[in-house]
TrEMBL record:
Residues 1-24 form a coiled coil. Belongs to the quinolinate synthase family. Type 2 subfamily. Catalyzes the condensation of iminoaspartate with dihydroxyacetone phosphate to form quinolinate. This is Quinolinate synthase. Its cofactor is [4Fe-4S] cluster. SUPFAM superfamilies: NadA-like. It catalyses: iminosuccinate + dihydroxyacetone phosphate = quinolinate + phosphate + 2 H2O + H(+). [4Fe-4S] cluster binds at residues 87, 173, 268. It comes from Salinimicrobium gaetbulicola. Iminosuccinate binds at residues 25, 42, 113-115, 130, 199-201, 216. InterPro entries: NadA (IPR003473), NadA_sf (IPR036094), Quinolinate_synth_type2 (IPR023066). It is an enzyme of class 2 (transferase).
Amino acid sequence: TERKENLQQKLIKLKEEKNAVILAHYYQEPEIQEVADFIGDSLELAKKAAQTSAEIIVFAGVHFMAETAKILNPSKKVLLPDLNAGCSLAESCPPDAFREMKEKYPDHMVVTYINCSAEIKTLSDIVCTSSNAEKIINSIPQDKPIIFAPDKNLGSYLMKKTGRKMLLWDGACIVHEAFSLDKLLKLYKENPSAMIIAHPESEDHILKVANYIGSTSGMLNYVKNSDHDTFIVATEAGILHQMQKDVPNKILIPAPAKEDNTCACSECAFMKMNTLQKLYNCLKNEEPEIILDNDLMEKAHRPIKRMLELS
Ligand code: 13P
Ligand code: SF4
């Protein structure tokens, strides 16, 4: 619409005036992705945040992502359009309870999925994302026991992939646990030539029937390079915008959710809290801003830095 385009133009002008960069996750609304300087998965966004020379970083994503960008740039202003854009995985791992678990297993190395709070990162030895998790686990000496948090689905997938036994925190992503295996198999029967691709945050029974498992960027690359022309995509539906742009002639079908919410697919309500209007307001007013304690940032930086060095 005219209003949307008008707002997008104003945003682009404003970010140039303010020397700001907009980083957006693939799960953001298309109208947000369209004005972003960079769209990526969690790892790519963290890398971009570590490299940017912009004075202001506007993070179109969820809280833990903006927090990571702030930890990588303590002297820069990092903005998040809606501070309530959380994450069920990050919420599932409260620091006090996690500290207790860690104290019970003092000889264990702590590997945390980037989808956790800054405070949990301060309790970690190394951070990982879905695109480098296997490599990170494999970099740890075989005889070193591991605690993996907070995603139990990604954790058990990694145990199978690496052959390592790990102690798992009992957390999950509500979006990736919403897929229905029955509906997925029915859809597959109707589209027998389709390839099923899934994010490793999905439950084991979904991963068992998947032809490819990978991060959001991994899935995009797979679809681009595959000879097949139909794909059933088991991750947040926002990915379909960029995917369809990459492969305009291929058929992309979102994997069905157990219960229909706003769409028949699975959407992250936290990611969708950001709107184009909120994004504009946030850059204009330079708030809401991510503010973190210096000591917390310093401690949380170590495991992120270790991950980036290995990626
Ligand atoms: P990736 O961006 O690493 O694929 O993670 C997906 C996700 O759920 C982000 O919140
Ligand atoms: Fe968190 Fe899942 Fe939403 Fe990603 S999709 S932000 S893991 S709730």
